[in-house]
Amino acid sequence: MTKRTIGNDEVGAIGLGCMGMSYAYGPADEAESVSVLRRALELGVNHWDTADMYGSGANEILLAKVLKDHRDEVFLATKFANVYDRTLTSHQDLVAGNAGWIVDGTPEYVHRAFEVSAQRLGVDHVDLYYQHRVDDRVAIEETVGAMAELVAAGKVRYLGLSEVSAESIRRAHAVHPIAAVQCELSLWTRDFVEDVVPVCDELGITFVPYSPLGRGFLTGQIKSIDDLPEDDWRRSNPRFQGDAFAKNFEIVEQVKLIAAAHDATPAQVALAWVLALSPGFAPIPGTKRVKYLEENAAAADLELTPTEIETLTAIEPPVGSRYPAAFAGFLKR
To answer: The domain containing residue 64 runs over which residues?
Structure first.
């Protein structure tokens, strides 16, 4: 596995987003998920990304089953701020948004959330601790100041931000160095390329693209909305709806043409394109199947030609917003 850098650490160029093993994308099998985690280490996929809200803590507990014997082999990232457990937050008076949760960036919550996550993960420190969403009621300087206290205490090695504006990155970085910024980026989501990515380049911050496979759409495996489980969050995603789905599948067809030339899969081409954009990118495609983990990992060795990269970059953006309207208030602040 080729490498990318976060802070002073080298990680596998392809990381592993663990959310789907416990949350959002329909049912998962715990035994299979554990197999994915173990196989990931064999493949050099050692950058694991989770969050306290994934499955209301269940995802962190899942990772603990493997971390207990392999902690030193994993670059471990988790996140806080999206509140699902109201007993942990002082924001009891706040009204939850339509998305069903509130965001808490208070210094007190930073410390409480970390201790709970560390306990679930069974670790004494995490390598990368993200503010999952920005709390517009709390200055980001206050939140990052509390996160920096965790670094000083040896509980966190690096700090990160997720779904954040360029301005907020600069303000946060002035308080304590930010090692990673995580935002959605793929062939069908490029919202952050013109503003956030240049700031990350300027400040030496690794950009971590999440959902680099377009929430699975770019794999070509989802032919219609009926291919998704009834409780799959993507059924509410505007890009998976009706006419938008049919129009957006045209993007997949263009990716397939290039994949055929390399005897590769559309997923591998989509990941290779993300990696080709910048050596400062460390994508974290998610999966809950060993087969797809192996497929994703192999994308690190796929080299696209300059012409192919230009062709892919020129693809028209998809139809539909990347999140339902209810989530709009939680994005890019």
So the answer is: 3-217+269-305+323-330
User: Among 23, 25, 54, 158, which one carries the catalytic annotation?
Assistant: 54
295-305 pLDDT, tens digit per residue, is 999 999 999 99
Question: How many domains does the chain contain in total?
Answer: 1
- Asked if residue 226 is part of any domain, the answer here is no
Question: What's the pLDDT score for residue 92?
Answer: 61
Residue 23 has a CB neighbour count (10 Å cut-off) of: 18
Per-residue pLDDT at 315 exceeds 70: yes
| The model's pTM | 0.94
DSSP H/E element including 129: strand 126-131
Domain presence at residue 238: no
Residue 284 lies in a domain: yes
Contacts 24+ apart (CB under 8 A), 151-156: 151/176, 154/125, 155/114, 155/118, 155/124, 155/125, 155/126, 156/114, 156/125, 156/126, 156/127, 156/128, 156/129
Annotated catalytic, 84?
no
- For residue 180, what is the domain's CATH number? 3.20.20.100
Arithmetic mean of pLDDT, 287-292:
96
